[in-house]
Amino acid sequence: MRVFSVVLSLFLVGCKPAPEPEQMVQRDPAWLDARSAQQALAAKELTSEQLVRHYLQQIAEHNTQGHQLRAITDINHAAIAQAQQLDKERAAGQLRSSLHGLPVVLKANIATADAMPTTAGALALKGHLTPSDAQLVAQLRAAGAVILAKTNLSEWANFRGENSASGWSALGGQTRNPHLLSHTPCGSSSGSAVAVAADLALLAVGTETDGSIMCPAAINGIVGIKPTRGAVSGEGIIPIASAQDIAGPMARRVYDAALLLEAMLTPAARQQIPASLTAAALQPANSGKVLLVRAFDEREPAFVDILDKTALLLRAAGIEVIESSDWSLPSALYQAEFQVLLYEFARELPQWLTAYEVPASVNTLQKIIAFNQARGQEALGFFGQEYLEQAAAIDLVEAQADYQQALQQSRALAETALNAYLQHGFSAIILPSYGPAWPIDHINGDRFNFGTSTAAAVAGYPSITLPGGVKDHLPLGLSVVGLPWSEPELLRYAALLEQQLAAYQRPRFVAAAE
């Protein structure tokens, strides 16, 4: 791991800074939000190159050294040159979009046609370079984003085996929560969340099947958006299941996440969401009716005060609030969801491995399982590969009818739970995202308190998590869930909560519980 830091330091030293314009007023890039960065770039107080150098320096100091966050797996060695080119375009008055010149990091399961491997953190895919960008990456490049680095994740997006620890992969090691370094960052978009939370990055892209954006965003005290199903292209992302997989933005502020999502939307999604997402993020809600879920007050008492404040501020803003302690999903939903994920993983992962030209020695589930068995602890670490083995054993033809039934059942149950409110006068559902972070445990694996991402994940409805409060250094998030394509409305609610709760806190990098 030390090699990573040394190579990055040499890279920073070896890249000659572009000449700075005379009389340029310097802006400290540390802890900037994206809107402030936009303004500083426009005012010539900052360059894209300076932003990129700042984050590369932070990575060099705290990824494998310093706080040892292990959020980043690979850096883009062309990032400084790309930033310099974007600065030249800006100086010539040629802005590609509102994202022009802003650095973005990507989860390591998203394909990029550059020198950064796409691996899902798996030893079997070590060093694998894909022949083309994922569609969302092509859109970000076209929008003028600088693809800065790839981020660590729960290996195979936490779909390898039982008793895993979120944020661990064979290639990236264990990502750590910057608020309390002994505790989980959750996952599977662990590195994306930690990079943003710890100021190793301005903006990040994560992916979610169920909770993989919402949980790490909430537990690391940042904003995460899981968009409506189909709002962002999944082409080029190492899959679990297309029924639920989707990429989304992760950022420190609601506006920042909206800015990144706007550049990621497919053309079809832009037709469904004609309103500006960034404009919505600057217009806090002042009307509507929401359900405020109080079902977890006893399980996590820290939410009592948070939700009391939330109810007061919503009502003060002119929003009707109905509070309810009734929130549960049937066990049949979780069972059907897992059946769908296994089947689609067995069907879709081999397709990605072939399309993105993975070497023949590891281009099937069976070959990856055999590779892991042969390499033992080096590949598997401290837990197994039961999900890979179960998926490999599926006969896709024989199991198709059961899969279709499970898909219909899971979606129907999830939609019923949400539509009971969202199709009967409620603009949104607001509820705790996840319980607080737990200690990293490489013996027993993750110890979730509770999570509320499943209904929206399975139904394909949009959800946003944002900071709601803190318990003993550990952030607690609130989620806002709505009907498909209601992202602008949800952003307005999120903007109100962000403004009035003012719950965002920079991490303190506490080594152990005080």
Layout of SSEs?
Elements lengths: L1 H13 L19 H9 L5 H15 L9 E4 L3 H13 L11 E5 L27 H8 L3 E6 L3 H4 L9 E2 L3 E2 L15 H8 L5 E6 L5 H6 L3 E4 L19 E6 L2 H11 L2 H6 L4 H5 L7 E5 L8 H15 L3 E5 L6 H25 L9 H11 L1 H4 L5 H7 L7 H23 L5 E5 L21 H6 L3 E9 L2 E8 L5 H15 L13
Helix pairs in contact: 1-3, 3-4, 12-19, 13-16, 13-17
Protein model, in words:
The structure is a single chain. With 514 residues, the chain is an alpha/beta fold. Helix content is 40%, strand content 13%. It is built from 19 helices and 13 strands. A hairpin with a 3-residue loop joins strand 4 and strand 5 (173-174). The longest helix is centred in the last third of the chain and has 25 residues, at 331-355. The mean pLDDT is 96.
Write a concise synopsis of the structure shown.
With 514 residues, this protein is α/β, with parallel strands linked by helices. Helices cover 40% and strands 13% of the residues.
Distance between the termini: 28 Å
User: Could you tell me the mean pLDDT?
Assistant: 96
Q: How much β-strand is present in the residues?
A: 5-15%
Oligomer: single chain
Describe the main β-sheet briefly: 11 strands, mixed
Approximately how much helix is present in the residues? 25-40%
Give me the Rg, rounded: 22 Å
Query: Which class do the helix and strand fractions yield?
Result: alpha/beta
- Give unreliable regions as ranges: none
Spatial strand arrangement across the major sheet: 1-3-2-6-8-7-12-13-11-9-10
Q: Helical stretch count?
A: 19
Q: What is the number of strand segments? A: 13
Give the overall shape, derived from the CA principal axes: globular
